Structure to design on (388 residues):
């Protein structure tokens, strides 16, 4: 009788236990209208805030897929499904890192059966047929090593092409695009996942496959970028120096043997530095959406302008580049005295108090990231080793 009493107390404690902090009803978006037959007339997916919210929730689902795996959560108690079910999507594929067995991405597809149960007979306008969502770093022992390895890869080379995750994500996205058409597919990621999404989306764009891309807190800090900045500054100093020297002086700078020194020497190494500088940048059909927070030191470099920065309303587009065309849409959150974990967090992107501005200026880093679509391989690509 005593043991039975103890079991009952334990059951009662479990029932009264506080809900998991990552449960959808606890930390998910508030006041979100359910998808219904009205969306056949006026689709919620045409609203930029709704789309941003849903896609951010899909990325959160990938984080929780890995968390459920690590904690060996039973299917009926799994946290992840609650983050896609309300939006009438279903999980069709998980992307596995073969190095540690972790889940780093997932394909979520429109769930026609679930939609029809709520009298949504067709997929609403603007809703993608399939979304490839990629998570960022999880600081838990089961996956931390490989996550940080890829973080360091980006820090060193500003490229993730050497990672097995890049190869897997590219193959999956290409396959889904071929099945449903690139206009019906979307790729999205947060933090490290945004880095992969950017480079996978760019790789497909080079092949003429343009997939809608959403990047939340994409990494922008790297040693490679710093080296290029040094090259740009060195060339700037040299140009200023050269402007102060008479035009004929360069030819006249010779040593005692009559050989040219300064002119030839600088000419030999300045091109190497200037090769890092942005060349002729054209704008194509691929227009990624970037969501950054100025208090997040990981992604804030995307807001550094190449020229005067201006800000307009959210109904405008980033038209600050050549020929008035769009290179990227850069949405910026500005909040003072914000802690890093909040500024870099994914939750802010479905928060009801998110105050976004769409920054309109020539972002030097965006240009640098996208210009390789129209030029040869970047120096960082040439340094990559075997996939690992």
């Amino acid at each position: 009788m005593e043991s039975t009493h103890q079991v009952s107390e334990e059951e009662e404690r479990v029932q009264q236990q506080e809900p998991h902090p990552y449960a959808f009803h606890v930390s998910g978006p508030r006041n979100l209208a359910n998808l219904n037959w009205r969306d056949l007339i006026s689709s919620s997916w045409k609203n930029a805030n709704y789309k941003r919210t849903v896609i951010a929730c899909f990325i959160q689902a990938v984080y929780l897929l890995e968390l459920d795996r690590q904690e060996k959560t039973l299917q009926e108690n799994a946290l992840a499904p609650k983050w896609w079910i309300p939006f009438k999507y279903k999980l069709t594929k998980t992307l596995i890192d073969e190095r540690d067995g972790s889940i780093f991405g997932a394909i979520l597809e429109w769930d026609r059966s679930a939609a029809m149960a709520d009298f949504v007979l067709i997929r609403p306008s603007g809703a993608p047929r399939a979304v490839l969502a990629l998570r960022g770093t999880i600081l838990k022992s089961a996956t931390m090593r490989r996550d940080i390895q890829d973080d360091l890869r980006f820090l060193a080379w500003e490229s993730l092409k050497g990672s097995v995750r890049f190869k897997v994500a590219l193959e999956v996205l290409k396959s889904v695009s071929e099945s449903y058409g690139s206009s019906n597919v979307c790729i999205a990621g947060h933090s490290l996942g945004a880095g992969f999404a950017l480079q996978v989306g760019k790789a497909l764009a080079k092949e003429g496959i343009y997939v809608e891309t959403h990047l939340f807190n994409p990494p922008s800090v790297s040693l490679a970028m710093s080296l290029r900045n040094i090259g740009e500054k060195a060339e700037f100093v040299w140009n200023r120096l050269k402007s102060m020297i008479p035009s004929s002086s360069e030819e006249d700078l010779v040593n005692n043997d009559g050989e040219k020194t300064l002119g030839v020497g600088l000419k030999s190494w300045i091109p190497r530095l200037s090769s890092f500088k942005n060349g002729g940048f054209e704008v194509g059909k691929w227009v990624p959406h970037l969501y950054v927070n100025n208090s997040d030191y990981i992604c804030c470099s995307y807001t550094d302008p190449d020229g005067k920065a201006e800000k307009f309303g959210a109904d405008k587009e980033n038209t600050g580049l050549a020929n008035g065309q769009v290179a990227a849409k850069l949405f910026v959150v500005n909040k003072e005295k914000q802690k890093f974990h909040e500024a870099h967090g994914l939750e802010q992107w479905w928060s009801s108090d998110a105050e976004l501005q769409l920054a309109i200026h020539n972002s030097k880093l965006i240009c640098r990231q996208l210009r390789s679509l129209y030029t040869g391989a970047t120096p960082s690509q040439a340094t990559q080793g075997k996939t690992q």
User: Anything to note?
Assistant: The CA atoms of residues 8 and 14 lie 10 Å apart.
